[in-house]
Design goal:
Layout: E1 13-16, E2 19-22, H1 42-46, H2 70-80, E3 92-96, H3 102-119, E4 124-130, H4 137-195, H5 220-223, H6 245-269, H7 296-312, H8 323-334, E5 340-346, H9 348-355, H10 358-364, E6 374-381, H11 392-398, E7 401-405, H12 410-424, H13 434-444, H14 449-465, H15 473-493, H16 497-511, H17 519-533, H18 540-552, E8 556-562, E9 568-574, H19 578-586
Parallel strand pairs: 3-6, 3-7, 4-5, 5-6
Antiparallel strand pairs: 1-2, 8-9
Length: 607
């Protein structure tokens, strides 16, 4: 190979700096050549799709209709309707187990509230915060502050655009008025010219008839001040013209009156000299007639003020500011405009657990200080007892209205799945026993509609991957196993390091054939694992508590049994798939360095 890394004929492999690899030069590659296409996705796309719209089966989707939740929705609506009257709605606390439609119902009502407020031109804003993600007072206030700053900027931009349109309309009106005045002035000048012209200059193009013999001879009668002869066929004195001084004076008076009338009209329009009339009153066709502005300067002054307000807004960073400064920015952003604000805090118990009730206290007490806006709170929680840990003042102001969402039964879940499946799947994609089975599985787990939707969606995905034309009962059972495994993987992955070490100790014992594991055996392996990764060693009592927590999560099964005169002990067994769980634990960077440890098990005397 030459030093210039020249291309080798017949191979895409090149050597650069002494290492071999594949060339990334695709200039000579025929991408349109069908032979080079391996058909990786062609086979997968060859079958008929099962899904019509998969998104309607996801928890994030808010349907247009929520079966079996009309009572709760109507109760929320009767509370929040006060916002459409410009009043402050009562705070609402929504309780219910996971998957009972709390969040979907609240979002549905909020969407209806915002659309109705726009219909009746009543300013009303709804903001949603998931406290499981945004779980500190700083983050909640910062996120809300930035959202309202963005809304204020949008309203300022819309207001400035309206004012600029008003200025354009005013420019057009003044230009049209000036054109009409110029046209009127030209008409006046033309009338003056016609008045000063020769009285015998007939309008008709025909030559004037000859004067009678009685007045023939000369113009002595004109020179002596006599009256000129009448025009033939003219009987109206108003049609007679005379060049005398009196006639000229009369013409001048008419001109003055015309100018005066024109001046009066301009004063009425409010565009002329202020001394000519009352400039604060505009005619009905004036652009400023239906506004509070008197003139152009007032409009321009408001535009400048709005632009200055927009420049004064400062976005809150997600870290770094004192909390009181964040609250001050949030307060000013909310109170900038007149409106009713509804703040929806989902998983509100997570916020209380993480940062206490300071956030709720501040939000629930804002209305006593706000001047323009009003704030209402909707809290959503799975824990019916979380208010027991709140300050009594917060509890009394926050829980003004309470709505409980009961679990769904199997029939209600079936209605929900049928309602969604009509939109989610192609026609004939479901066998008759799929929806009843999904509803039965979910009803066994506290009536969780989210679980039922996940089952149906996962069953459809499994059927689609196997290129089946119809979803059958077997796909639902496979989906049940897959969801359960995915849940276990997620729970194990998020365990603290000490809990992972305890669980890994149990797995090592089971891999070596130890059954009915006791706490002492787990503690011995646990200590060796801590030494391997240089972790702190907890006491045996604390390890026993961690085993109880794993039992509560359903990862292990710990049963207290009596050994007679030898006392009582806790027998432990694994409740999740061993190999998959071990793989998740070893994906942790700290546990992946553990060498293969063979547990030392003390000999037992079996009863």
């Amino acid at each position: 190979m030459s030093d210039d890394n020249s291309e080798i004929d017949g191979s895409d492999e090149v050597e650069i700096d002494g290492t071999s690899g594949f060339s990334t030069n695709f200039e000579k590659t025929d991408l349109d050549n069908e032979e080079s296409n391996q058909g990786l996705f062609d086979d997968l796309l060859s079958g008929e799709p099962i899904f019509e719209n998969k998104e309607v089966l996801r928890p994030s989707y808010t349907p247009h209709e929520l079966p079996h939740r009309s009572d709760q929705i109507n109760k929320m609506a009767t509370i929040l309707v006060a916002a459409l009257r410009g009043e402050t709605p009562s705070n609402i606390l929504i309780y219910g187990k996971t998957g009972t439609g709390k969040t979907a119902s609240a979002k549905f009502v909020s969407k209806e509230l915002e659309s109705t407020s726009q219909k009746y031109s009543v300013p009303c804003d709804v903001e949603y915060i998931n406290c499981e993600v945004t779980d500190t007072q700083y983050r909640v206030l910062a996120q809300l502050a930035n959202k309202f700053i963005e809304k204020n900027e949008e309203r300022i931009d819309a207001r400035v655009a309206d004012l600029e349109s008003l200025l354009e309309a005013l420019d057009e009106y003044e230009a049209d008025l000036e054109a009409r005045e110029r046209e009127a002035a030209e008409s006046t000048d033309l009338a003056d010219d016609q008045t000063a012209s020769d009285p015998f200059d007939f309008v008709s193009d025909d030559p004037p008839e000859s004067i009678s013999d009685d007045s023939s001879g000369d113009d002595s009668s004109l020179e002596s001040g006599g009256s000129p002869p009448e025009r033939k066929g003219s009987s109206d004195p108003a049609d007679r013209s005379s060049p005398t001084d009196e006639t000229d004076q009369g013409a001048g008076d008419d001109t003055d009156r015309t100018d005066g009338d024109s001046t009066d009209r301009r004063a009425g329009d409010g565009t002329g000299d202020a001394s000519a009339g009352d400039s604060s009153t505009h005619p009905s066709d004036h652009p400023l007639e239906s506004t509070s502005f008197e003139d152009r300067e007032a409009i321009e002054a408001e535009i400048d003020e709005l632009e200055a307000d927009k420049e004064s807004f400062e976005e809150v960073p997600m870290t770094g500011w004192p909390t009181d400064r964040v609250y001050s920015v949030f307060f000013d952003a909310v109170d900038y405009d007149e409106r009713v604000v509804v703040i929806m805090l989902d998983e509100i118990d997570k916020l209380v657990e993480k940062s206490g009730d300071d956030t709720l206290y501040n939000l629930s007490r804002m209305n006593s200080e706000l001047e323009n806006s009003r704030v209402s709170i909707i809290g959503i929680s799975n824990d019916l007892k979380f208010t027991d840990f709140l300050d009594p003042r917060v509890k009394s102001s926050l829980g003004e209205e309470e709505i409980v969402f009961p679990p769904y039964d199997a029939n209600q879940l079936r209605d929900i799945l049928e309602h969604r499946s009509d939109v989610a799947f192609q026609g004939g994609a479901l066998s008759d026993d799929v929806i009843p089975l999904c509803a039965a599985f979910a009803a066994q787990e506290h009536g969780d509609a989210r679980r039922a939707l996940d089952l149906l969606r996962t069953a459809g995905e499994l059927a689609e991957r196997s290129q089946a034309e119809t979803i059958v009962e077997d796909h639902v059972r496979q989906a049940q196993d897959k969801i359960e495994l995915d849940r276990v993987v997620e729970v194990v992955r998020t365990l603290p390091t000490q809990s992972k070490l305890v669980l890994f100790s149990i797995i090592l014992l089971e891999k070596n054939g130890v059954h009915s594991i006791n706490t002492g055996e787990v503690f011995n392996i646990y200590k060796r694992l801590c030494e391997e990764i240089d972790a702190d060693v907890l006491t045996q009592r604390r390890v026993t508590d961690l085993i109880s927590e794993l039992d509560m999560l359903g990862i292990v099964n710990a049963v207290v049994v009596s050994k007679g005169r030898y006392g009582r002990t806790k027998e432990i067994s694994l409740s999740v798939p061993l190999e998959e769980t071990e793989a998740v634990l070893l994906s942790d960077s700290r546990l992946s360095d553990i060498d293969d440890i063979q547990p030392f098990v003390q000999a037992r005397f079996e009863n």
